[in-house]
């Protein structure tokens, strides 16, 4: 009979054993547990649009089922979808690619996993600017390599500088992961900033770049989006540009990510995927095709909504004693410093020594869930996802302000 004792005696893969669970999902699990006990919680922890997938996209998924499109596709994805992806990269990003340079995966996370697993060997290094999405260093770890994190403080706009990049590159460096707009900070790299990083990278031909553009369409204040391979075409032969439909089209559960990159890398990732998932869900691929080729008004409407929410949330957070929040330029996250709360005591008697303490206390005493900045590689901050209706966001921010005001020295 299978027992916990027997399970504990079985060795795990050492790379898996060293990896940490997703901090975001751990918070979501705590929220679910509290709600199951009847507690009222406003969750600002998940990076998921609160609106529905556009109607024409949902209808395309239903039509795919009704029309019998429920069998395997090619491992790399439907030809029609790959052509639409290539057209998107040409039209929106100025990248010179055709459909053979693309790959469809089961979510953006699989794009990253496939790329790193196909190229990394033990001892290789991957440069990961911090704050980073929680999964980047863990995927590197699972692939047997080492994540080299670079702290990018508020003074640099939470962005990697050329000097810091140059200092981090070694003969073992295999990848740089660059995310703009950023999760968790909402930072957006300008064309000039990307060009400055490109100048460093041109001198190190062994370094590949993963450009995570998943929040491309969530960019505010009239800013223009730029991606690295577009800014510096000489780097395109070693840049993997990834994107997906999750954030732009509110399709998180459909699990479709995609990428474009050098043919040798795409073929290696396809080979790996053929022994892994055999390809993405056929129905979801048909829906993604409708998203990329159909009306795009949904994107413009949702961008306006998120910019309005950003303005409200940042203004309210900056009224909370001990919090300070810079104005993010994209995505749907506010990354607020909670340094002013550390050392204080909550009404329930909890001493706040770290940003993780702050997050736990906010959930337990204020009924608001967010994620601690240390999980993203930079403390002391809290990440608040403002992908929620206005009334809930306002109520959450007011609860946070009341919590902060009630702290004692």
What does this structure look like?
With about 400 residues, the chain is an alpha/beta fold. The protein has 2 domains: about 10-50 and about 300-405, Aspartate Aminotransferase, domain 1; about 55-295, Type I PLP-dependent aspartate aminotransferase-like (Major domain) (Aspartate Aminotransferase, domain 2). The protein is about 40% helix and about 15% strand. The protein is built from 15 helices and 13 strands. The protein has helices spanning about 5-10, 15-20, 25-35, 55-65, 80-95, 110-120, 135-140, 160-170, 190-200, 230, 265-275, 280-295, 295-315, 355-365, 390-405, and strands spanning about 40-45, 100-105, 125-130, 145-150, 175-180, 210, 240-245, 255-260, 325, 335, 370, 370, 380-385. The strands form 3 sheets. Strands 2-8-7-6-5-3-4 form a 7-stranded mixed sheet, sandwiched between helices. A 4-stranded antiparallel sheet has the order 9-10-13-12. Strands 1-11 form a two-stranded parallel ribbon. Helix 5 runs parallel beside helix 12. The longest helix has 21 residues, at about 295-315. The chain is globular and about 60 Å long. The protein starts with a helix and ends with a helix. About 50% of the residues are buried. The mean pLDDT is about 95.
The quaternary structure here is single chain
Number of domains: 2
Strand content: 5-15%
Reading side by side through the largest sheet, how are the strands ordered? 2-8-7-6-5-3-4
Terminal-residue CA separation? 54 Å
| Count of extended strands | 13
* Largest sheet composition: 7 strands, mixed
Report the radius of gyration as a whole number of Å: 22 Å
Task: Give the overall average pLDDT.
Answer: 95
| CATH secondary-structure class of the largest domain | Alpha Beta
Structural class: alpha/beta
Q: Which outline best applies? A: globular
**Within the CATH hierarchy, at the fold level, what is the topology of the largest domain?**
Aspartate Aminotransferase, domain 2
Q: Count of DSSP helices?
A: 15
- Which range best describes the helical content: under 10%, 10-25%, 25-40%, 40-55%, 55-70% or over 70%? 40-55%
Q: What is the element string, with H for helices and E for strands? A: HHHEHHEHEHEHEHEHEEHHHEEHEEEH
Uncertain runs are none
Indicate the CATH architecture of the largest domain.
3-Layer(aba) Sandwich
CATH homologous superfamily of the largest domain, by name?
Answer: Type I PLP-dependent aspartate aminotransferase-like (Major domain)
């Amino acid at each position: 009979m299978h027992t916990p004792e027997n399970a504990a005696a079985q060795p795990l893969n050492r790379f898996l054993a060293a990896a940490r669970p997703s901090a975001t999902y751990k918070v979501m699990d705590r929220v679910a547990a509290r709600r199951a006990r009847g507690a009222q919680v406003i969750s600002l922890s998940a990076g998921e649009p609160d609106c529905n997938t556009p109607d024409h996209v949902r209808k395309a998924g239903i039509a795919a089922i009704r029309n019998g499109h429920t069998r395997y596709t090619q491992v790399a994805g439907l030809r029609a979808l790959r052509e639409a992806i290539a057209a998107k990269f040409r039209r929106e990003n100025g990248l010179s690619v055709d459909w053979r340079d693309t790959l469809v995966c089961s979510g953006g996370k699989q794009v990253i996993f496939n790329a790193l697993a196909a190229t990394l060997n033990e001892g290789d290094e991957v440069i990961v600017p911090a704050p980073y999405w929680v999964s980047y260093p863990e995927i590197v770890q699972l692939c047997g390599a080492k994540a080299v994190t670079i702290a990018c403080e508020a003074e640099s706009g939470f962005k990697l500088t050329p000097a810091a990049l140059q200092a981090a590159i070694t003969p073992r460096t295999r990848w740089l992961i660059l995310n703009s707009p950023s999760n968790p900070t909402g930072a957006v790299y300008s064309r000039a900033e990307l060009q400055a990083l490109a100048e460093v990278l041109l001198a190190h031909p062994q370094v590949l770049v993963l450009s995570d553009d998943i929040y491309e369409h969530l960019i505010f204040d009239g800013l223009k989006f730029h991606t690295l391979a577009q800014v510096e075409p000489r780097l395109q032969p070693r840049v993997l540009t990834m994107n997906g439909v999750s954030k732009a089209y509110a399709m998180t559960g459909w699990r479709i990510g995609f990428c474009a990159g050098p043919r040798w890398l795409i073929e290696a990732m396809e080979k790996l995927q053929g022994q892994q998932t055999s390809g993405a869900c056929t129905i979801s691929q048909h829906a993604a095709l409708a998203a990329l080729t159909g009306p795009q008004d949904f994107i413009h409407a949702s961008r306006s909504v998120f910019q309005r929410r950003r303005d409200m949330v940042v203004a309210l957070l900056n009224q909370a004693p001990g919090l300070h929040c810079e104005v993010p330029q994209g995505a749907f996250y506010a990354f607020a410093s909670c340094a002013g709360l550390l050392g204080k005591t909550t009404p329930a008697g909890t001493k706040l020594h770290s940003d993780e303490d702050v997050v736990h206390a906010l959930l337990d005493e204020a009924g608001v869930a967010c994620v601690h900045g240390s999980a993203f590689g930079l403390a002391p901050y809290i990440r608040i996802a403002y992908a929620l209706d206005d009334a809930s966001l306002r109520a959450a921010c007011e609860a946070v302000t009341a919590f902060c005001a009630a702290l004692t020295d």
